Fold this sequence. Notes:
The chain is mostly beta strands. It contains no helices and 14 strands. The protein has strands at 5-10, 18-22, 29-32, 42-45, 56-62, 65-70, 76-84, 88-94, 103-110, 113-118, 124-128, 135-139, 149-153, 161-165. The strands form six sheets. Strands 5-6-9-10 form a four-stranded antiparallel β-sheet, with no helix packed on it. A two-stranded antiparallel sheet has the order 1-14. A two-stranded antiparallel ribbon has the order 2-13. A hairpin with a 6-residue loop joins β11 and β12 (135-139). It starts with a strand and ends in a 16-residue tail after the last strand.
Amino acid sequence: MGITAATAKPNIVESVKYQIICNEMPSGCVVDGSSFSQATPLYYSSTAPASDAAYWLFTETAQGQYTIRNAATKQYVTFDGERIEAYKRYISMTDRQHGDSSVWTISNQGGTTYTLRCAADNNEIWDVRRDSYIVGTYNTAGVGSNQQFTIKTAGGATVQEQAAPAAGETGINVDSWLTAN
């Protein structure tokens, strides 16, 4: 009589700060661009700074969907559909949530690897530009290596999938409580 998983989702905890690390460039992380003197709203730092501007707060809005706010600025990562060639790829940092444009679906790609897709347009996936380190979205149904991320706490714990208990289940395994007579 073990747990039957209804669905799985990342073991993200609200109010915990996380770094978002591109699997293709594991020594760095996504940072708030303006906090690091960058013109782009989101930037990929080649090193992982200790500043709060390099950390993110996740709030679950629905199963597997989250708003993502910068830990320093408290601004939301928001898809806006605007591209400015030199420094912006479809993302803004906003002071308030803008519906599903500020909500991101976090999907497991195997192990501790995740993609982040816009809830307003599921083809818009987080993407680190290899030539400029701009972090934005890219419109694709596929997944490239620069679109896969690991999410870690400030203490270094890696986010991974956790099974949610099925309806009526508590998630507590009571098998060891049983005794044979």
